[in-house]
């Protein structure tokens, strides 16, 4: 491909000609590591020696709204095309969310942890998700960039917190696609009357990793290729597929209720209340796709109008749909008979509607296909903005001049997801994914409180320290409540202390810390109570997960922090201080 002159954005949002265009396909070492810290082994040793000072600098530094909207976007060299409306975002919401959770995890969690009370699990996780949706909506309107929660946390909590978010976002995107792709194979097997694992290759590897899934790899590759071609084209495909999916869902609800038996709801909570919340923490994965909509703000024609309509509208409808479908499944079969891998198809087969199981399986395949399609679209935009900050190599930030899409970032997400999907089981993936998702949403609620109550030059030092102490009280009491529930759910003494402590921390922010900023267009209502409740519910659901999920999460986090200390820290330090032959990040230091 011959070099072309490509436009870039200046700080006023206007286009200006790039001084020299280069081929999009570039693989030189400097395209991956252009920072001075990696210029030579000697320079790298010097950077490692300065690690403590650089860590202090990165803890103190904050990005700004202007930097995220200006300097960082220019690093993609070409602009993403503003071609999406609220209609596109609404259907992206349906496409990215419905399919993975309701068709994949409902049967697993109803059978193993909640029984018929899986309905309450969806209610609990849905309410928690809606609290996070409020936070995302306010941020996406005010900072409409592709980075989503990474950009928001970078502005409000700083570079190190943003790296933790970035690492978990990449982990979430890779694992999420892998989990759905493997479920796609299970439903395809159901469609042709085969056992769930019939289309996988059995090996002698450890349990949970011993079934190779080449079909999942192919599905990921096809959806990634489509996402690379065009955002608007992907949206059109999603419209059609999601409309068909709505018809399938309507069939499942109506036909399921016609064959429902209220007696199957007894016993309603066979595993007790802890089982309900354990399942809620897992099925939270079903709501995780909504954050993809926030990443498309950079390609939305009118973010201040389109994002609230698309995000809040689609998630409200999806929450109701999930609860009704979970109720249908619970009434069609005893919870002990629910198929863990292809629950709805097997349920219709059990009531004599064997032909209906093919409709359900086909609808589930369609749903999971759009989840993969919209998922790779959104997560590639996360990855693009993360690369703009140089936490990962900046070559992945490039936007293709012809398609207006981040081809490199899309390929990175797809290849990593395909490698994991080939080996790992859904059970291994879903628990780890839920920890990562809940952790990010907790950070988002914290970032919103910081945004509302702290502005450098406006908030006094006394009020800043007071805000910090009260936030720690909210987070600490939320962790304490989760620990009490996980270890001794029947003992009330801990809650008598911890619940009032959480309420006191929230009330303290409302009464003792003056608001420093008001939302420009749309804001989360009942601040600080709703963001504080979001922190508490996300931490609580995290505490409901099993020990193994946290062990895997801890190992992954440790590996990510090692990468940050060895690579990401030095790359972002050089960029923030303008040492890459270009502009810095226009950061606020010592915030």
The CATH homologous superfamily name of the domain at 81-437 equals: Amino acid/polyamine transporter I
Largest sheet: 2 strands, antiparallel
Give the uncertain stretches in residue-range form.
Answer: 1-6, 11-15
Individual helix count: 23
The CATH topology name of the domain at 81-437 reads: Amino acid/polyamine transporter I
Count of DSSP strands: 4
Determine the structural class based on helices, strands and strand pairing: mainly alpha
Average pLDDT confidence is: 84
Instruction: For the largest sheet, list the strands in their spatial order.
Output: 1-2
Level-1 CATH class name of the domain at 81-437: Mainly Alpha
What is the second-level CATH architecture of the domain at 81-437?
A: Up-down Bundle
Helix percentage range? 55-70%
The value of Rg in angstroms is: 24 Å
H-E string: EEHHHHHHHHHHEEHHHHHHHHHHHHH
Q: Please tell me what the overall shape is.
A: globular
Strand content: under 5%
Distance between the termini: 45 Å
